[in-house]
# Entry
Amino acid sequence: MSEIKKLEIVRFAPRNGEGFYDTLKKKVNAYFKDNNIDPHANTAMVTKTVLILLMYLIPYAVMVSGFVTNVFAFLGVWVLMGLGMVGVGCSIMHDSNHGSYSTNKTLNKLLGKVIILVGGYHVTWKIQHNILHHTYTNIEGLDHDIDAGAVLRFSPNSKWYSMHRFQHIYAWLLYGLLTLQWATIKDFKQIYYYHKLDLLKKERKTLNRAMFEVAIYKIFYYAVIIGVPIFITGMPWHWVVLGFVIMHFVAGLSLSAIFQLAHVMEECEFPNPDDNRKMQNNWAVHQLRTTANFSPKSKVLAWFIGGLNRQIEHHLFPHICHIHYKNIAPLVKETAEEYNLPYVEQETFVSALVHHSKMLKMLGEKAA
# Structure
């Protein structure tokens, strides 16, 4: 993470009341009103929530039951838990921490805390994702999702190092370490970092309170995810630890692929503010120019990753539950075309991966 300093925010251009976003919001609001649809979770979303949680909890229950004695089957269960982590993070925790799951704030907070079950901390996640990433998408120094330190270069505005020439090769290994980093040291580092930037106050947390909470959550997580299997399953401890690492590698690689395909793409922009810290576009147009969709026709993928293959819709309407993205997407695309604005979309997941890999290679070339 970059050197701690005052957060130098930027100002977006104002909307004129008749532009892209104002027109789009009227269309989207009319869609929900005319069809008498609540923009929050519906019955299908509630059913999905239960199924996704079971995708994570059932493999764990099978593992600790002691019935799985074969090493390969044992490690296979951890792979399934890794996939379950992806579902929990994308389909439940994500909407809840955006406040889009329910009108009930208590329910949103409760479901948002399921991130604890997969090794994370909801407070630091909300600061990095909701406040910084969603507001300042792809802006160097403000969007921490494109700040991977020196080892990876996600923006043409980041410092170039010679090792970046090979990042399109080694990035995939590092992607697999994403959630393992969350589960170990990243939350502690972020708490201190966000405290220095006065961002903890937005979540009504003091430094000591946040440190205490994350320590308790980590102790609980490791006791359940590693301690219980070691003492109950009878499997040697090193197989349990290996399974734990495999689970996180599967989850980390999957989650990294999902989120990097939305912003670190050839077609996405990485705009800089002017000398007065002002951006050329308003916030909504900025989101269109820095965000991309992928695989819009895949119902299975959309179901599993919480509609995050439609990141454009998500960035423009984070307060709407992802279950509705497929229905408002035509309105977004239509309005973008109406105002001659980009609507970037890769037809398949594979093609998006190829484009992202090309972007990594391009960013790895020495800057002029």
User: Anything to note?
Assistant: The mean pLDDT is 94.
